[in-house]
Amino acid sequence: MGKCVNHPETETSYKCMKHNIYLCDQCLECRDPELYCKYRSSCPIWFLSKGTRKLDESGQTPAREATCRVDFSPDGKSAEVPAGATLLDAAGKADVYINASCNGKGACGKCKLIVEDGEVEKTDTALLSDNEKQKGYVLACQSRVKGPVSVRVPEETIERKLRVAGMGEEITRRLQGRVTEISPMLEKISMELSPPSLDDPVSDLDRLKRGLKKNGIDTNRTNIGLPVMRQLAAAMRNKNWNVTTSIMHKACSSEVVAVEPGNGAHPGLGLAIDIGTTTIVVYLVDMADGRVIAATSGHNRQASCGDDVINRIVCAEKNGVKKLSTLVLSTINTLIREAAEGAGVDFRDIGNVVVSGNTTMTHLLLEIEPRYIRREPYIPSISEFPVLKSGSIGLKANANAAVFVMPGPASYVGGDIVSGVLYTGLHRQEELTLFIDVGTNGEIVLGNKDWLICASCSAGPAFEGGGIRWGMRAEQGSIESVTIEPVSFEPRIKTIGDEPPRGICGTGMIELISEMMLTGIIDQRGKFQLDADHPRMGAVGEEPAYVLAFADQTPMDEDIVFTESDIDNLIRSKGAVYAGFTVLLNQIGVSFDMIDRVIITGGFGQFLDIDKSVTLGLLPDIDREIFHYYGNSSIGGAYMALLSADHRQSAGEICNAMTYMDFSTNTAFMDEFTSALFLPHTNLEQFPSVSAKMRETAN
Amino acid sequence: MGKCVNHPETETSYKCMKHNIYLCDQCLECRDPELYCKYRSSCPIWFLSKGTRKLDESGQTPAREATCRVDFSPDGKSAEVPAGATLLDAAGKADVYINASCNGKGACGKCKLIVEDGEVEKTDTALLSDNEKQKGYVLACQSRVKGPVSVRVPEETIERKLRVAGMGEEITRRLQGRVTEISPMLEKISMELSPPSLDDPVSDLDRLKRGLKKNGIDTNRTNIGLPVMRQLAAAMRNKNWNVTTSIMHKACSSEVVAVEPGNGAHPGLGLAIDIGTTTIVVYLVDMADGRVIAATSGHNRQASCGDDVINRIVCAEKNGVKKLSTLVLSTINTLIREAAEGAGVDFRDIGNVVVSGNTTMTHLLLEIEPRYIRREPYIPSISEFPVLKSGSIGLKANANAAVFVMPGPASYVGGDIVSGVLYTGLHRQEELTLFIDVGTNGEIVLGNKDWLICASCSAGPAFEGGGIRWGMRAEQGSIESVTIEPVSFEPRIKTIGDEPPRGICGTGMIELISEMMLTGIIDQRGKFQLDADHPRMGAVGEEPAYVLAFADQTPMDEDIVFTESDIDNLIRSKGAVYAGFTVLLNQIGVSFDMIDRVIITGGFGQFLDIDKSVTLGLLPDIDREIFHYYGNSSIGGAYMALLSADHRQSAGEICNAMTYMDFSTNTAFMDEFTSALFLPHTNLEQFPSVSAKMRETAN
């Protein structure tokens, strides 16, 4: 018996004779080499079972545990799982992407599958309509396997390419002018050195340093590692003293990370990576001119461990940080591969990387203990990271690539916010700016070039589609814009890519609720006022719902509806954000009219309707001119830091300048939150223009 | 078929199913896990031969190649070697230490063994006496195995503990006062940190840095690696925010290499290591007070690859640098283990290491390409080394221990000379000092606090016992002092440890030749003048020889003699050294009377008789008062650098200040060398006091 090499909490008697390690059942049955069994690719299971027998407590060989095969269409993937495992477990093992917002608790209703053949043991759920149940829909986390089964991933939940606002050229245009001088972390210097002679017998390394000095490198602060020293003599002589040196610039010193024979070095490629809790975005950049040559994005595979950072940390505590790290790395590496293949370049030419993410995301990526982030007093292990080598993290780039991780000042205000501030430039301006990032967490920064204060509130995932029956991210087919005809109450919807509607994203929800309130479909508490027999009124179980699109217009052949719980969830989210910045302002004695600029960022969608956001009560009712919507500012800041040493230094300065205000024990926050659980707000005086509009439409 | 993992030049069909690697015959038969097969300890040979069969070209299993077993006494070790292998090969495989000065060319006659059982095929050699041949003596490198054989390592060649000038306490006394303030590279700082709270929510790393700042650490220049970041959260909380941080101080930055729970850090242990081509010395030092708590020394196991650095480099080119690196590492690690066991301490507490050695030795230790050292224009790959981590080299110390390697300015003036200069302090003094290190290479430094010039000449290994029939290092039983009665020509000898004589070391040879010349036993050319029938005259073959000790007084039951070739070798060695410093002085226009101090260092023995060294013509005939013999100055400088940052910095400054003068194309050197091939010199005017003494004794 021994401890499983992947799951040290498990004792097992399966020993691999090839690797001299123990592996548990879970490893033996895995199909995902990245997730469970790093040895699997070189180690077929038969090798293990031949090598040893599994023994029971009395030392006897027990009967082999029955496993059931689960086939997934349309992926064509499959997994063997023990009887009693859930379809969600099986999907994980088969590497089939399924959104499981609530981490398998049966609460979100997102992990829908259709059983096509075979039977499963399922717990009854109100989260599926009768129509769905008839069609064989089940929730993956609530269905246990008892024999071989074939399931299909329904059209509406298949992972689609996220819409990144514009690809390559468009992004390049948008980012143009943000970097004046390119100064990468990994610099390549080509030199023609003079050969040694009896009159000039300095060592190879000193000869190299002499050349570097001529190229402006401070060699007194430049280290060199043993592997490079070992290759030095050959590398320098191989192409007749023509060499290309790669130098990694760190905060307080530099390091020669490679010396290669020959000249003609290209500055190489860079990566800007935004690791969102939900979505990961990768820009592949030409370091010579700053062009974005490819952009890719995808769902963070950690989604199978829950929607928000708290669930991810819980999962890391239970299954080890390694698991979460592997999940996010496999997502990122897939995106890097796609980007490199798309651009027709070699990923080994990637020498510079900037990673931006919230504190939990960066901890999980780097396999750093996250458990104290969620425990009072909410302490991250690391705020500012040294420049790391790609090889030590496992990113698909040159092993010597320099990796800069955006620093984050607090457990709930992370590097993504610092990156956003960097991108918007508010830390360099006289004007007082309020920066609001709406994601699963709502983060708020207030300040200017002299001071910065920040806070965070738990907004919940509603704006990104979490906890909303037909909520989804801003993908192809999501409803991003809604207007409602005041008399007929008929909606006019617009979807991303003008595809048949599959659900509704954040911007769509904001417009929908704003419109429903102004047209009187709902009241200020978010309760339906429309007659139950109105053609646009439906129900989910007992609960009334507004029908946004009828089944015959959707690819799922299901009505897309918005229920009172959905409205309630959204109100709670917007209430938290509104309470957040209100309390922050109150605490430091700043009123709305003192603010010169409001910046909104987040993953709602492409175009945020400011006026409707005010109507909802998400944003304050002030001059619309001062509002600016920036979309994903985290990736923008990462791009800037990728290209410029000045910007990397600014990131550190922003992080250090930020004062964090904790709301967790703040009673004012709870009061403000409660007041904001109205449309637009309990206190209508704070929303004069909305009041006026409401009066107008009422007349 | 595949490439052998240890010998990539060999194709083999032996595949290890356990490690998925190929291993060649040499690996399959090895007995030395360190030298040949790193997999052997976990991989018994049966596993390999079971896994696959060896195939011949037609795909058939060929007849197994015959091997012969060689047993060595008194070690009790044995090896299987193919028929036709030499006993030297067999000794290497069995890890039996044999001195093979000439690297198996059959030229030095050192690798004597006695065949006790079985037969070998031997080449006839004049290097063994008839008496020896009768007793079954063979030369290991000239004897090929043709069947099973038992051999004995003769008493006189068994490795003995070298005499390190004094152990622990004695060394400590000698070194006292050389370091005023202890400032290790790896500093341990114990701190009691304040626990985090909502009012003080800084990250774990920032909390640690805050503590370090209070302890005087410049945290802006302090890096931290990923492995430490990963342990940080647990380490800090494990003992209630009491932690001990290990910080490695490098030239231009520092690094947190470990954070451990709890307080009460001891400054730990340090190692000063002198890697000589022939001898390795290790001091184990208490970093708290600088006490040397153990000292060990042993023969550099690279000796099996030849006596001098050129042979070692040739061997590295032929067999790979790895082999040489492994040999020296295994020697050092054995010595460290002995020292740690002797002192009753844990080698994992060793946090600081300083290594001093010549340029070839440091290159081989660190597996850095040495081949250009021996090729014009004689370029070392690295002169100054960054502080390295012990784990990256493979030293038996804490894996995070900081390793400082003494810098060396040229291929033939290395870190050992810089260390010696540091130890003698000549670089800080007004007085003009001539520093002469006599080893296999003779290195010369001239200068003071304002300038340093250096050169090197190939002295040959005679003073360390190489190329001398009964020559040996300054070990127990070596003759270290000789006087000869002028009338009877009877010698009075003194051995180290007052043991029966086993050979003669450098100081003994200097005294012997000086005495033989003054008593007229030899003339100024080194030719014998004594009657052949004098009881003290013997012969080796045709060659006359002076008998220093008769067989019945020696443990080998053999006469210890000194032949004319021996005398010639020694004259050539002293001639090279004398020519070296003479040319150096001439070139820069300094005469002997301008020199304030002459320092002699080297491995001759404990006590050098200056007057007799002058009589020999090794040292100039000037005021004896200004001569100082320092023994091993390289280890002394290493000790100082181990304890003090100032001294480490000085080492770099000395290295940079040294101007190297190359003699390889210098005709003046050849002239001076030829003139010095007399006793004491062709030009007796340069040796007035010796001339006077010669006239005196002649009368």
UniProtKB/TrEMBL annotation, chains A, B:
Residues 68-157 form the 2Fe-2S ferredoxin-type domain. PROSITE patterns: 2FE2S_FER_2. Gene3D superfamilies: 3.10.20.30, 3.10.20.880, Domain of unknown function (DUF4445) (3.30.420.480). GO terms for molecular function: iron-sulfur cluster binding. Pfam families: Fer2, RACo_C_ter, RACo_linker, Raco_middle. This is Uncharacterized 2Fe-2S/4Fe-4S cluster protein (DUF4445 family). It comes from Desulfosalsimonas propionicica.
